[in-house]
Every structure is written in C-alpha cells, then in structure tokens.
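Postdoc handover notes: sequence design on the structure in folder B. Input tokens:
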C-alpha cells in the first residue's frame, strides 16, 4: 500500500516507512526525514476533500474525511493593498468558499495525514500533546475514524478543545492542572516511552509536513503555477517546511515553474525565536531563559505561536528553507495583528484567527516597504478562520482524566493506562 519511502535529509539514506518513524536510525546529528513518492507527477483525484491530493500523502490505511482547504483569488484585500495576484489559502470553516475544516484551523490537514500514514495493523495508541488547535483537530479526526488517541492538554485549554471538536469514545483527553504547553509535551514523551504508546512527534512526523503541504498543492492546483511568495505565521514552522517540500515536488513535475516560493514567515513580538536568529544570521536559535520566554509568551496576542524550539538549525529545517528561497522572517506587533484581522474581515468578509492576522500583517508590511513586487503571484496562508460561523459542538464533554502537574511523573502512565483499559470493559 505504501507507494513511497522515507529519505533522511542528513545522511541521504532511504528506508521503508513503518507509519510512525520520526528519526533516521543512522548515527548522526538530528535531521528531518522526508517522504519520497513513487508518483513524480502532480496528479489529482476527483475526491471533494483533501484526498484529492492522496498521491502525495503518505498512506498506510484508508481514512474518512470531508476536510477541504480552499484557495481563491482575492479581490477585496488585493484591491486594498494594490496587488494584482493575491491568492488566499483559506484553512478554516467557510463552506460558501469550499473551505471545510470543522475545527477551523489548518491543523486538521495534518491530523488526517498523520492518521492515514499509520498502518492498519498498528496496535499502539497514538499520543498527541497540544495547547489547543492540534488537540481539537486530532480529537475530531480520530472520532470520525474511530482511531484510539490520547491527547494531553493543559487543563485551561480543555474547554476550547471541547467547544469545537467532536469527541468520541476512541478519544481520551488528559487534562493537566497547573500545567503549560511544555508540561503537556513532557508528559507525552514520558507516556510514549511505554511500549503501548506512540508519539505523534510534531514537525518530525513526515505526515504532518506533507499534510500541511496540501496548501501549496491546492494553490498550484488553483493558480496553475507555483506562487512567487508565500506568507504564513509560524510557531513550529511545520507548515512552512511542508509547503516548501510540496513546492520541491511540484518543481520536479516540471509544469509549474522551477522556483520554490520566497518564504515570508511571521512571528508575534516580543516572542520571536525564528526572527531573532534569522535576522542576525545566527547558526542556531538564540538561547533565552525560561523566565524570559514565559514573560514574552504572556504578551503575544497569537498564543499558538509560542513554540520554544522550532527546528531552525536542523538538516531540512527552517534556516535551510529560508536560505534556499531568499526568504525572511517578520516580527509583528499585537496592534498590527489586530488591524490586519479587521482589514481582512472588512475586505474579505470573514473572521480570521490571530495567527492568520500575524501573517496578513506581514503581507501588509511587505507591501508597504516594497519587499514584494505587486504584480507577482502571492499566496497568503490563512491558517485559521471562520470560527464565528462554526456551529458549536453541544455535547457535555469532560476530560477522561485530570492529573495535577506534580503527580504526572509518579502516577501519570498508570493512570492513563487505567482509563484506556476501563473503556474496553
Ligand atoms: Zn540519516
């Protein structure tokens, strides 16, 4: 069934995929793996969902999904900014435009791709750590496909997840009191050290990046050519890396152009680890204290952009991608974000999430300072939006398990096992 293999961006080695592998087995510095598909041409199916792009998604099982991204040419915002070819990749809930991501963010693209990659004979339980959008996307996708899943969230993030995701019996949400995102990540690693569990793995999971790369495939499908510029707000930067990898595949096809889009990435000041490193040409991320990171993260309006360890210096990572595409990183203030969200709503007629406001603000800034040419093809990735029009899930959801941060190390794994076991009785 697997019509692809994995290739290591560090040593160049290739391996068959087991559906969950995150790292190269050879002994060298950390490097991202990539998929290499048998199909070298960009072929699409007639499916009215992201399965249209199945030839370039890792497949270990069939999954059900109605998820769909929408790419359309802007008139309103384009006119306001004086741009001739502004294309919007809308990844949220906007059925009138054809965008059908029920949990309202592009995280749903990666969730379905990750599930489809896992083999049908996989008996271990998938573990995902998240502070919000990723948890909602995986909960919904695993509910639709009845795939066992444990989600670890900080307790204060639970309501946001439950309000927008369907949560079926195969999905167990563990809420950690007194915890932040980093604590949830740490517990997911602790859990996945046990043999009954497998770690989803974030940006290291090839399916995540290929799933997010759908935005580039859908854009090229709509435009007929690879865009010249690509704007996106980044936390882990998995989306930007996935889009770049998709563009490389499209270049290989030969019909859509020979250049990867210039990556115009954006972060929310004052927490801007990628901007800080890239703008001074640093070889690795600049270290900051836990206290500084916490203080800065508390000040950003786009809370999902709070990843403290994006894959910057690693082979196949952000530094390489920016260098190759003559890309750049913008540092966007909260007030610019709010203005951009309002301008988008006014000119395009729909609400967008704060992180999409960060990307839109970067576009506004780039137009103002002349760093984009106004007649070129621009793709703006709206990574979340349409939340206001989403019908709320009305079920009375509670976490399957609530633990305090202080008890996770001692009893966390046993507690999760008991919840999974009791549900099978
Ligand atoms: Zn390797």
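Designed sequence:
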């Amino acid at each position: 069934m697997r019509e692809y293999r994995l290739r290591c961006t560090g040593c160049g080695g290739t391996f068959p995929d087991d559906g969950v592998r995150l790292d190269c087995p050879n002994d060298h510095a950390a490097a991202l793996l990539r998929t290499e598909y048998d199909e070298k041409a960009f072929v699409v199916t007639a499916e009215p969902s992201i399965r249209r792009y199945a030839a370039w998604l890792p497949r270990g099982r069939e999954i059900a999904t109605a998820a769909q991204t929408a790419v359309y040419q802007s008139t309103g915002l384009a006119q306001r900014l004086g741009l001739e070819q502004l294309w919007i990749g809308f990844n949220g809930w906007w059925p009138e435009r054809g965008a059908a991501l029920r949990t309202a963010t592009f995280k749903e693209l990666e969730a379905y791709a990750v599930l489809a990659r896992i083999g049908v004979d996989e008996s271990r339980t998938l573990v995902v750590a998240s502070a919000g959008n990723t948890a909602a996307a995986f909960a919904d996708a695993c509910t639709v496909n009845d795939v066992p899943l444990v989600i670890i969230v900080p307790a204060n993030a639970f309501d946001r997840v439950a309000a927008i995701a369907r949560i079926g019996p195969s999905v167990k949400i563990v809420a950690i009191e007194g915890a932040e995102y980093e604590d949830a990540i740490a517990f997911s690693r602790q859990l996945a050290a046990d043999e009954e569990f497998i770690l989803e793995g974030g940006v290291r999971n090839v399916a995540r990046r290929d799933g997010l790369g759908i935005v580039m495939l859908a854009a090229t499908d709509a435009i007929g050519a690879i865009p010249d510029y690509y704007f996106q707000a980044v936390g882990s930067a998995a989306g930007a890396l996935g889009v770049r990898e998709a563009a490389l595949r499209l270049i290989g096809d030969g019909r859509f152009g020979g250049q990867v889009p210039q990556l115009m990435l954006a972060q929310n000041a004052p927490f801007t680890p990628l901007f800080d490193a890239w703008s001074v040409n640093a070889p690795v991320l600049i270290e900051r204290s836990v206290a500084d990171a916490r203080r800065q993260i508390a000040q950003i309006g786009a809370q999902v952009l709070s990843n403290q360890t994006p894959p910057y210096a690693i082979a196949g990572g952000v530094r390489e991608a920016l260098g190759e595409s003559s890309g750049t990183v913008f540092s966007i203030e909260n007030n610019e974000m709010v203005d951009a969200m309002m301008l988008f709503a006014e000119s395009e007629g729909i609400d967008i999430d704060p992180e999409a406001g960060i990307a839109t603000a970067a576009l506004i800034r780039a137009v103002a300072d002349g760093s984009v040419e106004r007649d070129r093809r621009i793709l703006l990735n709206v990574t979340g939006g349409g939340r206001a029009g989403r019908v709320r899930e009305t079920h009375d959801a509670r976490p399957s398990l609530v633990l305090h941060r202080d008890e996770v190390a001692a009893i966390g794994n046993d507690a999760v096992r008991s919840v999974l076991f009791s549900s099978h009785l």
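Context for whoever picks this up: The radius of gyration is 20 Å. Don't rerun without checking with the PI first.
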